[in-house]
Amino acid sequence: MDDARFMFATGVENSNPTVGGRRVDELDKCGHYRHWRADFALVTELGIRFLRYGPPLHRTWLGDGRCDWEFADATFGELQRRDLVPIVDLCHFGVPDWIGNFQNPDFPRLFAGYAKAFAQRFPWVQLYTPVNEMYICARFSALYGWWNEQLTSDRAFVTALKHIVQANVLAMEAILQVRPDAIFIQSESSEYFHAEDPAAIGPAELMNAKRFLSLDLNYGRRVDSEMYEYLMDNGLAREEYHFFMGHSLKHHCIMGSDYYVTNEHRVRADGLTTPSGEVFGYAVISRQYHERYRLPVMHTETNLVDDAQGRASVNWLWKEWANVLRVRNDGVPVLGFTWYSLVDQVDWDSALREDNGQANALGLFDLDRRIRPVGRAYKQLIADWREVLPTQSVCLQVPVVLPSEHGEGWAQRRRQRARSQPVRDTDAPHNAE
């Protein structure tokens, strides 16, 4: 296919955590339930073919083995008709009320069943992010006490993290049973913690080790000794650790890295953090993650609140794109770039903790679906660079198959060949610390 090239993407924001028992549904707040047909038309208008998108988990997944597919059938049917390639985001910061929260030990097994049911219903879908930003989800829910279980302990954090990552791994395995050539683009926050003074070096080093935990477990990479003790001291059982070490699916994965101006932090000696703003930038931090996991990379999220003149977000787009090109020119296989999201978001200025109805000027379009200057700039960037950046990735030995190509003989033969390969990468080497 001619689009097995650089993946220019955007996304429809579908976060749905609970805050104090109140469900926060960004698809509702941003008007997507009313305007989904128009939203997909905007994606096409920009010349974008790849869309981070997922059905609302809390409305779709009604119980073990019970789903309401009405909205998903309508929206994914339109994506298929438009020949848009969804990167399907199945769990974005929240779970249905009947699950409870991420402390529930049944969540991983049950979620894998949901993922398989989705793949069976939409067999033409190839690209997935089963669980979005696993590290952030566990941190905000169980360490900062902001979302879902609203706990604030290391033990709660480790419990949430192990359940979230296990759910992601089991979902990947379940999807591969249905779609053996599936590719998983794991969107994860790429972070860095800067020591404010010599006394803060220890706390900063600890935080810089914790930032890798979700991907270490997800990719079956042995954690260092300090993190191993931290996990064991806070409730991770030895057999659970061995589960992660024995279920690596790296050969099906692209490492998605999200970067915002808020992703870098200053650390004080007492362990408290404050925003540092952009110090290293995306190029430096994404290389740190790539050097650790040696996977192809996609820049899966970025944005900046616009100013009244519409210049701030345009300048940020240019800066992030320059960083992507720098990383790529340094030899890192960068496969795609994403401005997140398609339309403005609501109440992210309070990390969704306050229900103020505050529109955040982060989108390519505003909430009235009027294009912003950054939308025009991104459309031009895509037109200028689309033919210049062919994909170079061992991960895409199985090329992306357009929805319209799913039934083609060559695509069916490719899936059959993929089906004959083992699902688990249990022989992949692990990096001992």
Describe it.
GO terms for molecular function: hydrolase activity, hydrolyzing O-glycosyl compounds. This is Family 1 glycosylhydrolase. This protein has 433 residues and is an alpha/beta fold. Helix content is 40%, strand content 16%. The chain has helices spanning 26-29, 32-45, 57-60, 70-82, 107-121, 134-142, 154-178, 201-210, 213-219, 225-233, 238-245, 282-293, 312-329, 373-385, 409-419, and strands spanning 7-11, 18-19, 22-23, 50-53, 61-63, 66-67, 85-91, 127-131, 183-189, 192-195, 253-258, 264-267, 273-275, 297-301, 334-339, 345-346, 359-360. Strand 12 (264-267) and strand 13 (273-275) form a beta hairpin. The longest helix is centred in the middle third of the chain and has 25 residues, at 154-178. The radius of gyration is 20 Å and the shape is globular.
